[in-house]
Design brief:
globular, 3 domains, alpha+beta, about 50% helix
């Protein structure tokens, strides 16, 4: 199993990486140079790739190595993959040789059934590789590999300029520290695509798709610290999985990336007394939330809220709002390509993977984080319930900002129940989450109306048709919000008494 962190390097700064003094100082025996030619094989129908396998034959210094890898496991930041290899007498792949090594029976069977005659070269990489083996006094080892070259597929080619940091011995702590230190001098970007993924992507245009939150699978005997780390990485995974879609300006991908970020911030808020996040991480997540939120607000106005306006055809408003949203989606590309975004992701990954909320290598015996999560999570959930009840009790029925604070509290209470679902009574949790989701949707719609009231004046300038539509829409949404007051009061009263079973 290999565990590595992949980073894209600006092509113009490849030599700056090669000459970086930190790599020279940390390397065990200096830098090593290799020229590699990797040919990827598959069937005409790409049967291996579709089932999560890649088969590669590498030529280097007159020798051939055959390698099979599984698709990367879903660990945020880090790529964890099964890998098996063997020497070959020539460049012809022999998949049966590796089938014997692979333990997962389904993968072994798949590979053994593929005959060499069914395979054909799909694409190849021509790479200059510079590698360093880095060692630390505590015994940890990280292999640092810089690849430059090109991926060739038919008449197409794509540039390779990437840095891979692979754990050879020890934990991931030094790996993320190293990445952050290099990033301070050279602007790097985290990358989720392997060379194989890039090569297959060149063969067919596939639009990125949005990724929703996956259920968190918690063990019954896990400690509270274990679950905190696991849930945090689950949230981070959702964020990172939606970056490709956001880069393609996909509205739903941006929404799901924002959901992942909201879940992560809710988790950090829940554990603020037990595992406080460093100020740098909290500020970075706030910065990202602001950028995503502004874009999402215009998406909702253009694609959802204006469709609820009756009495006029708000077509001109929709076009204008969509144009504003599109500009913000374009600006998001700069945000995701920025040095700060990479710093935020690396910092959060390092904090979670390395459990950096600890002062020592082990937790104090009396720390609540060391207790079984099944019981230790209950005070955290009770705190979220009490906060929601207090905010409902203090609601005067008029102030939109109070309503928004209730919505946030309801969302955090719901996220908490979803995070620890595996450790709680299933039926009760399902009902609890459903009730909170209904209230959240209700308050969310009213919040969309309130946000629209703040955005529409930006489209209301002038006395033309656009201004008249914006003025009408603002009035309509205010009236709709006021008409909903009695229904909202009943919903809040019911939820204020809602409790998870003890």
């Amino acid at each position: 199993m290999e565990t590595e962190l992949k980073l894209q390097v600006p092509p113009a700064q490849l030599d700056q990486i090669r000459q970086h003094p930190m790599l020279a100082a940390q390397a065990f025996d200096g830098a090593h140079e290799h020229q590699l030619v990797d040919t990827y094989y598959d069937t005409a129908g790409h049967d291996l790739w579709k089932r999560g396998l890649t088969l590669r034959v590498r030529e280097s210094a007159g020798a051939w190595i055959q390698t099979v890898k599984t698709a990367a496991a879903t660990s945020p930041g880090l790529h964890e993959r099964g890998e098996w290899e063997c020497a070959l007498p020539n460049a012809t792949p022999q998949p049966a040789l590796l089938a014997r090594q692979i333990k997962p029976a389904a993968l072994s069977t798949l590979l053994s059934r593929v005959e060499a005659g069914q395979l054909e070269p799909i694409f190849r990489n021509v790479t200059r590789r510079t590698s360093w083996l880095l060692k630390w006094p505590d015994g940890d080892e990280v292999e640092c590999v810089l690849d430059s070259g090109r991926i060739e597929s038919g008449g197409n080619h794509a540039e390779i300029a990437e840095l891979e940091l692979e754990i050879k011995h020890g934990s991931s702590t030094h790996l993320f520290e190293l990445a952050l230190a290099l990033h301070a001098d050279i602007p790097l970007r985290m990358s989720n695509d392997s060379k194989a993924a890039r090569g297959f992507a060149m063969l067919s245009e596939v639009a990125a798709h949005s990724v929703k939150a996956q259920p968190v699978k918690l063990g019954r005997h896990a400690t509270l610290e274990d679950t905190f780390q696991q849930i945090g990485l689950n949230c981070l995974r959702q964020m990172e999985a939606n970056v490709p879609g956001v880069l393609q300006k996909d509205v739903e991908s941006l929404h799901q990336m924002r959901v992942g970020l909201r879940r992560l911030r809710a988790l950090i808020d829940m554990f603020e007394e037990l595992a406080p996040a460093p100020a740098q991480i909290a500020e970075g997540l706030d910065w990202l939330a602001e950028a995503l939120g502004a874009t999402r607000d215009w998406d909702v106005l253009a694609d959802s809220t204006l469709a609820r306006i009756h009495g006029i055809d708000p077509g001109a408003l929709r076009l204008a709002a969509r144009a504003r949203a599109d500009k913000l989606h374009q600006a998001m590309l700069q945000t995701l390509h920025s040095a700060r975004f990479t710093e935020v992701l690396l910092s959060v990954n390092g904090w979670l993977h390395g459990r950096q909320w600890r002062d020592e290598t082990t937790l104090p015996a009396k720390s609540p984080l060391a207790n079984p999560a099944a019981k230790a999570c209950l005070p955290l959930l009770r705190k979220a319930e009490k906060r929601l009840s207090r905010r409902i009790a203090g609601f005067d029925g008029e102030e939109p900002h109070q309503r928004h604070r209730i919505r946030i509290a309801a969302k955090k209470a719901r996220y908490g129940a979803e995070f620890f679902r595996d450790l709680l009574p299933a039926k009760e949790v399902k009902r609890y989450v459903a009730r909170l989701s209904e209230l959240q949707d209700h308050l969310g719609l009213l919040n969309d109306f309130a946000v629209a009231g703040q955005l529409l004046p930006e489209l209301q300038k002038g006395n033309g048709e656009l201004g008249r539509q914006a003025a009408y829409a603002r009035g309509y949404l205010v009236a709709a919000s006021e008409a909903d007051s009695s229904e909202l009061a009943a919903s809040l009263k019911a939820v204020a008494k809602l409790r998870l079973p003890r």
